[in-house]
Amino acid sequence: MRWMILFVPFLLTVFSGGCGEPPDLAVVAREIVTMDDERPRGEVALVRGGRIVAVGSREQLAAGLKQAHSVLDFGNAVVYPGFIDAHLHVAGTGRALMELNLVGTRSLEEVLARVREKATELAPGEWLLGRGWDQNDWPTKRFPTKVDLDRVVSDRPVYLKRIDGHAGWANSVALRLAGIDASTRDPDGGRIVRLPGSREPSGVLVDNAMGLMASALPKVDRSLVKKQVLKAMNHFACLGLTCVHDAGVDSLDLAVYRELIDAGQAKVRVYAMLLDGPILDDYFRSGPVLDYGNGMLTVRCVKLFADGALGSRGAALFEPYSDDPDNRGLLVTPPEEIEKVTERALRAGFQVATHAIGDRANHLVLDAYEKALIAVPTADHRLRVEHAQVLAPQDIPRFARLGVVPSMQPTHATSDMPWAEERLGPERLRGAYAWRSLLDTGVRIAGGSDSPVESANPLLGIYAAITRQDLDGNPPGGWYPEQRVRLREALRMFTIDAAHAAFQEEELGSISPGKRADFTVLDKDLASVPPEEIPGVRVVATLVGGQLVYRGE
To answer: Does residue 7 fall inside a structural domain?
Structure first.
């Protein structure tokens, strides 16, 4: 009886009341996993005008299925709500797909071999740019130097970003073009790594020191950003992503998004986070953009940075790094500035999402948010902490108490676990990547990848969240397994809870009547395969607003 009370009104909405219009599309599969607690499963979803009008069995929706203008029957595949990545970098992902890719390199010599090979493909004097090196994966876990790069390329500038994007590695030509030498001072919130026993730059720039290279790097124009965004969107669509939260955009990025949407070329929805700077003044005056291009672009969030990254020892810690006793990391934005911008954002109707990785950075961000909320009381603010990676025990319950959303990337844990204990020691690790502890306080975690830092494949994030193992199944039982989550909780992180983090839970995140028709179609039911098989599950198709944006073979 309860089911009939819930279901019959939707049938009436679709097929009576003078509306009488047949569905544009019927999506059919062996099973539809809705992530809607009121109707968790189905076999048919009917779509009209880009929105879901009914979900049910073949028998229940036989009339609508017969009347639909078109039918996508995926046979034995399984349909999920369109997967959402709550933290990545769109143009950065496209750029990484176009530049030298160093992800997965296992030694300095392997990196140098790739650099040498790439240099032969470029025009004389052209910059060699790349990303993805990680000294923690090398036998000798030291930062590389310009001397290393100069050995293989000395006739052109080379600049390679670390995998986390929080450190850059330059050769001598690049340093000279940027005017970085022994007399250059460390900027606030940044560090120029020096050669041992001297003031001579080693070639590695950490956090805000990377800005010293900006004036020398090739200029980024609109056509290049457009190519990067298109390449990234195609990549996301084939991974089953239908919406992404772009964690740091400027006016050029937004202009490209609008151009692609207007031309019908955008393949995934974008929830954009504005970088701090002059762009904020304009948006704080005009207010959020909530439904550009029929929901393809939303602009209502500000991205701030509290500290650096753990891998480059820039994450701000209360106590020194266990493997670097003179270093407690970097605060790249003063806490009072975070508080000030948060107050302005709340008054203008914007959300704030602050990058915080170390325990000290997370504590200071929560303090800043708490003070801002006292100054500007806001009932439903959904302030976010991006990464929330290392938390002091006393700060874990503060997220729920303050209503702050932890936006976390499960694959960071499985990438960092080989060396994280060296950085933090065993005691601090108990509050690191603490998904279970946070969920048990009642918060909703928004799941993401931080692509191009990690793969944008949401199935890898789901696998990492439920196993805390790498793709080889190590360590047995999982790394700090008490912090694992259940499959449904991991699915929520990449669907309804990611939508909630963007105030979009009434539009996205579940297959429910009235919501936008965003679907991810997989060849297997994730609940019916062993966890170790989840990374190999194949994306059959991706639909955004009822439109097919990717179909596998």
So the answer is: yes
